[in-house]
């Protein structure tokens, strides 16, 4: 079975997993399961992700450069080593005012309990 995940039981330099490509957003899956996924992404200057609303929490950690993440109209500037949790059901988008790389972790479990209450 072919997978785009990274090789297991091998060390990786996370910031080097992907390169920047002109006028592009690049995404490399690190690990993908039914309960969530971890990806590393690179954004070239001026690129971004369209506004969206996800049913799951998402954790964004900057590993190179500086990112602007907007959650429900509130703008957050994150630098290398900083992170933010993007809450489920909140509008959000990502802007690259300069090149940056980030790790994105999405957790898909735990929400079934919220709907049982």
Structural account:
With 117 residues, the chain is mostly beta strands. It has 1 helix and 8 strands. Strands 1, 2, 3, 4, 5, 6, 7 and 8 form an 8-stranded antiparallel sheet that branches.
Beta-strand proportion: over 45%
Q: What is the annotated CATH architecture?
A: Sandwich
Q: State the shape.
A: globular
Helical amount: under 10%
Largest sheet: 8 strands, antiparallel
Structural class per helix/strand content? mainly beta
- Average pLDDT works out at 90
Secondary-structure element sequence? EEEEEEEEH
In angstroms, what is the radius of gyration? Answer: 15 Å
Distance between the termini: 40 Å
CATH class: Mainly Beta
Task: List the keywords.
Jelly Rolls, 8-stranded antiparallel β-sheet, 117 residues, globular, mainly beta
Topology summary:
Elements: E1 25-33, E2 36-43, E3 48-53, E4 57-71, E5 74-79, E6 83-86, E7 91-95, E8 100-107, H1 111-114
């Amino acid at each position: 079975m072919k997978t785009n995940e990274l090789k297991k039981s091998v060390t990786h330099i996370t910031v080097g997993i992907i390169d920047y490509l002109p006028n592009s957003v690049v995404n490399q899956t690190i690990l993908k399961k039914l309960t969530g996924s971890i990806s590393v992404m690179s954004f070239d200057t001026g690129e971004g992700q369209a506004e969206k609303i996800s049913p799951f929490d998402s954790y964004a950690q900057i590993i190179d450069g500086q990112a602007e993440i907007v959650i429900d109209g509130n703008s957050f500037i994150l630098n290398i080593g900083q992170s933010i949790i993007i809450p489920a059901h909140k509008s959000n988008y990502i802007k690259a005012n300069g090149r940056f790389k980030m790790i994105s972790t999405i957790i898909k479990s735990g929400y079934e309990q919220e709907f049982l209450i």
